[in-house]
Structures are given as C-alpha cells and as structure tokens.
C-alpha cells in the first residue's frame, strides 16, 4: 500500500540521495504520537505565522497538548508518516475514507512534494473505497496545496478553539466524472 510513496536511497550510503531518502509508513500508535505532536506544533507555530496570529496558532497547536487524545486521533482512519534519518518530516490522515483530516509537513521539509504525495495517495485510497468526492477542511496555509491538487473551495468557515476563532476552508474534489449524456 505504501510502495508508491517510498523513495528508495541508493546502495551507497554516502550519496546525497541516500542521506535524503524518505521512508513512508503507516502510523504506529503510541510510538509515533510524541514526535508527530512536536512536528504538528512546529508546523503550526512556524509555517502558519503569515496567516494566523500568535494567539490563533497557540490555540490550534494546543490540540497536541493531550498526547493520549492526539494519539487516539492519529490512530483512527489511515495515517501515513514520512521519516528521514529517524525523524518524522510529514504526516497526513484520511478519516473517514473521503476526508483528508490532517496534513502537516516539518518546516525544513516544505516544497519537496511531501504534501502533494500524501494528497495523491489519499485520493487513490478514496477512489478504491468508492468515494465520489474527497474533501478537507484546510488552513489558509494548506489551501493552495489542495487547490493545486484539483480541490475547489466550497465554503469559508470559522472554527473555535476555546475562545479563539480560526478561519478555515472547506474544499472538495470530485472523484467521479459526471455524465451528461442521455
């Protein structure tokens, strides 16, 4: 299932490609929770700064404060994690089978196609499950990534994290072509 996401390194461990190889695998409950919580916080606090103020980012990032709840959230559905040199560099979740629930990339690993690779795999899984659409609730940061993958804006929403309001964007991509012939 993960084979199409794996970038294999070369046989020579001293080459740049081998050092930069990314290994994709499924989420391992409990074991992966703490490092993914750290990635989640870092991505929000660093990458979302142009779109959300410090109070909004702190409220959003606080979702990882309760590690047991964060772990339970990651353990549902299908969660893929990209690892490089023993550290997570990206992760995403499909839950349920037609909704991209989470998608985060470590700040040092942006613009390398990791988010796009996750979206493509989730789209393939949604199609395999017979879903007619794939949707997500994206941040202002993630919205362009999803739009480049063929998602369209359905509605802009405001969600609350405690007393803090955060804008987000509900996006959708049709997976089944409409037939207009009679």
Automatic annotation (TrEMBL):
Keywords: Transferase
One matching Pfam family: Acetyltransf_10
UniProt key word Transferase: yes
Keyword Transferase: yes
N-acetyltransferase domain location: 38-176
GO molecular function list: acyltransferase activity, transferring groups other than amino-acyl groups
Annotated InterPro entries: Acyl_CoA_acyltransferase, GNAT_dom, N-acetyltrans/Recomb-assoc
Protein name: GNAT family N-acetyltransferase
Organism: Paraburkholderia pallida
């Amino acid at each position: 299932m993960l084979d199409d996401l794996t970038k294999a390194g070369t046989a020579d461990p001293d080459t740049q490609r081998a050092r930069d190889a990314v290994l994709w695998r499924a989420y391992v409950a409990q074991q992966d929770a703490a490092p993914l919580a750290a990635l989640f916080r870092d991505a929000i606090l660093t990458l979302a700064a142009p779109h959300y103020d410090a109070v909004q980012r702190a409220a959003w990032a606080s979702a990882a404060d309760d590690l047991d709840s964060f772990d339970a959230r990651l353990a549902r559905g299908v969660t893929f994690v990209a690892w490089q040199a023993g550290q997570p560099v990206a992760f995403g979740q499909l839950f349920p089978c037609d909704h991209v629930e989470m998608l985060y990339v470590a700040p040092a690993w942006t613009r390398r196609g990791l988010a796009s690779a996750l979206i493509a795999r989730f789209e393939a899984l949604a199609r395999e499950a017979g879903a007619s659409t794939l949707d997500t609730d994206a941040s202002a940061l993630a919205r362009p990534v999803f739009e480049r993958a063929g998602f369209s804006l359905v509605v802009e929403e405001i969600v609350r994290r405690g007393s803090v309001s955060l804008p987000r964007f509900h996006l959708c991509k049709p997976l089944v072509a409409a037939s207009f012939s009679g």
